[in-house]
Amino acid sequence: MSLSTVVQHTAVLSAKCALFVFCRKYLLDSLYKDLRSLSYNEDTHLSTGTGSTDNASDGELELDPLPTSSSRVATSRSMPSPLSAVSGLFPLNRKDTGSMQSDLARILFSLCFEEGCSLFLLVMCQAVDILAPTIRRNYFRTSLGLLAGLVVVIIPLVQCLLFTYRAGLHRKKQGTRIALTALPYLLYIVAFFHVPLPSNSDGGFFTNALVRMNVLGTVILGLLSGFGAVSTAWSFQPFSKTSEVVTERDVASASDALERVRSDLLARQSEARRSGVLDQGSSWFSTSFFKGNPGSALLLEIDGLRALESQMTRNLEALRLGLDEREYRKTWQGRIWVIFGKAFAVYCVIRIISSIRNVIFGPSSGSSGTSSPDIVTYLIARFAALFPKIPLSQDNVASLARQISLFLVGCIILSSVRTVLWQVGRLVKSNSKTTGAAFLLLFLAQLMGTYLLSTLIQLRTSFPPSKPPPITTHPDESTDSAEPTNVARDSEPSSNLFASLPEYQLFGMLFDGSFLLAAAVTSATIWAQRQLTRAEVFR
């Protein structure tokens, strides 16, 4: 191995380690704290900071004081360390289990970030002809396989472990939990390999796995971008000059009403504790079949007050956010943010209209079987083609427009990723902020890896590797003794990194259909919620 080869290997490995350390030490510090604030559920939201609801005696519900105006979520700051998600497989004590979940999620997220960025760095090295082609190709294929394995195999397995985790589970029941974890994971693997492939897909096992991953990624990106487009457009309301304004009086009224409900709830709990009703339990069977019992009626009233308290707490938090947003919009930074937000909301509306046109009328004739880009990205690409130093043909303009459209889709998803994570956190119903934050971090790693791979494959489709030229012989020589004149050129396509990727069009009917489905459901949900309450359904 020559000195130049050693230097190149050292440079690539150093860059990969630097990306991993940067994500592990700096990027995740603020991100993980934010995810912990999004990972609470109704039970942990109402529990005190001295213990969880699992430790509350006889189902008693202890309440936190109302949040201050600067707080975002009324959650406790200290939580007990739960059992690890893999405690049945590794002998860990309770003190180390919370950090085990956090460290595992951080490592997997950092690996996804590092491998995804490494792929793009290698593509840039190919563009400027840095590093040897063999080294670029080997590291590219290794990073591609690791990223696909993380997104498709490893992260879903860890998510299943976290999803089936329950604090305080007895050691003897770990076998049942492992079975409950293995069943959905095996179903997921079977369903993944039954994802239909495009008609022109004739690659090997790994190539077909990448295509299946991109089919699922197309659906996921379409759903998330449809959700983000509607929520962004509705938040800024670019075509509306007036909107309902939250005032301090609204916040004070909601706070007083919540205090009264909490006082009633504490009073009913004290009454139930004195009468011994809580000792009988509050199972679904007892409250359903013994409704005539005064104790059961009291338990039903307590459950109703709990649900009311939870809803009023969310409404109060949404009102506080609206008040903070109104104050922020009065600053010069807020005014600039509103201008960009309204412009981006206009683009979201145009993107929805373009998707409707693509679904109804089909792709345009010049898009080679894919949905034509929306008018905004097409105009941006045409404007770039006007520069004399950027000569672009009609096909290159369409390719550039699709790249810009993919970038703007990423911006749409990024603009609503906090809301998406908050909704996922509500669905997961984790009994620990550590477990919930780990699950959300893994979900974010999957989303990031899927988007990066989709971007690379879209680049490969827009700028495909050149096909090998046919082997030619000299006309004055016989066929048996002839030697090809382009042996060196014949191996050229294998050194192109894009040759390792399958050809797949992201913007098609599948993406537009998923986009419109999510947009329609989100619009109906926001409209219905605003008819019932002034609080925002998505924050």
From TrEMBL:
<dbReference type="Pfam" id="PF12430">
    <property type="entry name" value="ABA_GPCR"/>
</dbReference>
<feature type="transmembrane region" description="Helical">
    <location>
        <begin position="336"/>
        <end position="355"/>
    </location>
</feature>
<feature type="transmembrane region" description="Helical">
    <location>
        <begin position="144"/>
        <end position="165"/>
    </location>
</feature>
<dbReference type="Pfam" id="PF12537">
    <property type="entry name" value="GPHR_N"/>
</dbReference>
<feature type="domain" description="Golgi pH regulator conserved">
    <location>
        <begin position="205"/>
        <end position="271"/>
    </location>
</feature>
<dbReference type="GO" id="GO:0016020">
    <property type="term" value="C:membrane"/>
</dbReference>
<feature type="transmembrane region" description="Helical">
    <location>
        <begin position="404"/>
        <end position="425"/>
    </location>
</feature>
<feature type="domain" description="Abscisic acid G-protein coupled receptor-like">
    <location>
        <begin position="328"/>
        <end position="530"/>
    </location>
</feature>
<feature type="transmembrane region" description="Helical">
    <location>
        <begin position="215"/>
        <end position="236"/>
    </location>
</feature>
<protein>
    <recommendedName>
        <fullName>Abscisic acid G-protein coupled receptor-like domain-containing protein</fullName>
    </recommendedName>
</protein>
<dbReference type="InterPro" id="IPR015672">
    <property type="entry name" value="GPHR/GTG"/>
</dbReference>
<keyword id="KW-0472">Membrane</keyword>
<keyword id="KW-1133">Transmembrane helix</keyword>
<keyword id="KW-0812">Transmembrane</keyword>
<feature type="transmembrane region" description="Helical">
    <location>
        <begin position="437"/>
        <end position="457"/>
    </location>
</feature>
<feature type="transmembrane region" description="Helical">
    <location>
        <begin position="177"/>
        <end position="195"/>
    </location>
</feature>
<dbReference type="InterPro" id="IPR025969">
    <property type="entry name" value="ABA_GPCR_dom"/>
</dbReference>
<dbReference type="InterPro" id="IPR022535">
    <property type="entry name" value="Golgi_pH-regulator_cons_dom"/>
</dbReference>
<feature type="region of interest" description="Disordered">
    <location>
        <begin position="464"/>
        <end position="493"/>
    </location>
</feature>
